[in-house]
Write a structure and sequence with these properties.
Pfam families: FKBP_C (PF00254), FKBP_N (PF01346). Keywords: Coiled coil, Isomerase, Rotamase. Belongs to the FKBP-type PPIase family. By secondary structure, the chain is of the alpha+beta class. It folds into 2 domains: 8-74, no CATH class; 96-204, Chitinase A, domain 3. The protein is 39% helix and 20% strand. The protein is built from 5 helices and 7 strands; from the N terminus they run H-H-H-E-E-E-E-H-E-H-E-E. Strands 1, 2, 3, 4, 5, 6 and 7 form a 7-stranded antiparallel β-sheet that branches. It starts with 7 loop residues before the first helix and ends with a strand. The model has no long low-confidence stretch (mean pLDDT 94).
Length: 205
């Protein structure tokens, strides 16, 4: 039992607050005032009249929403510019092939098996990183190859897989418009992210 909270009711109450706090932390804004949050929660629970008028609340919500939107747009522009700079420099390296779409790749291992088509399903091993080198996903790390239709992945992968005979391993440098674009992918991949993958085609299923 906790030294701070001794009863079952206190534990459950703390758990409710903890869950609310985690949700708030994942969708917060700069300058949030936790004592004010606590006061609002207490007043609402007690059925008290709001200490801030509805008009003032609406003005505040609108302004905070505007600030968040501006911050997101600035972050997206910075990510797009960083990706473009990286790809422009990467394109100058020996061994880099650039396709018409803007996909860049280098051959790590050249296979000699059958080449998949748009309608194929394949088994691969892959290792995905941001241009910083930070890993966001890796079947290699999990020790479990991934299976999927060639048509069911990001555009950069769909294009690359149709260039890969079985046994080939490529390193892909994928511009954001061939990856997850302006939307990103949940919390794991921000909008406008250029991505790097090592992809090994193991088998056409």
């Amino acid at each position: 039992m906790s030294d701070l909270f001794s009863t079952m009711e206190q534990h459950a109450s703390y758990g409710v607050g903890r869950q609310m706090g985690e949700q708030l932390a994942s969708n917060s804004f700069e300058g949030i005032d936790i004592p004010a949050v606590q006061a609002g929660l207490a007043d609402a629970f007690a059925g008290k009249e709001s200490a801030v008028s509805m008009e003032e609340l609406q003005v505040a919500f609108t302004e905070i929403s505007r600030r968040l939107q501006e911050a997101q747009e600035a972050a997206a522009e910075a990510a797009a510019a960083e990706g473009d700079t990286f790809l422009a420099e990467n394109a100058k390296r020996d061994g880099i092939t650039i396709t018409e779409s803007g996909l860049q790749y280098e051959v790590l291992v050249q296979g000699d098996g059958e080449t998949p088509t748009y309608d194929s399903t394949v088994r691969t091993h892959y290792h995905g990183t941001f241009i910083s080198g930070d890993v966001f996903d890796s079947s290699v790390a999990r020790g479990q190859p991934a299976e999927f239709p060639v048509s069911g992945v990001i555009a950069g992968w769909t294009e690359a897989l149709q260039l890969m005979p079985v046994g080939t391993k490529l390193k892909l440098y994928v511009p954001h418009h061939l990856a997850y674009g302006e939307r990103g992918a949940g919390a794991s991949i921000p909008p406008y992210s250029a991505l790097v993958f090592e992809v090994e085609l193991l088998e056409i299923i």
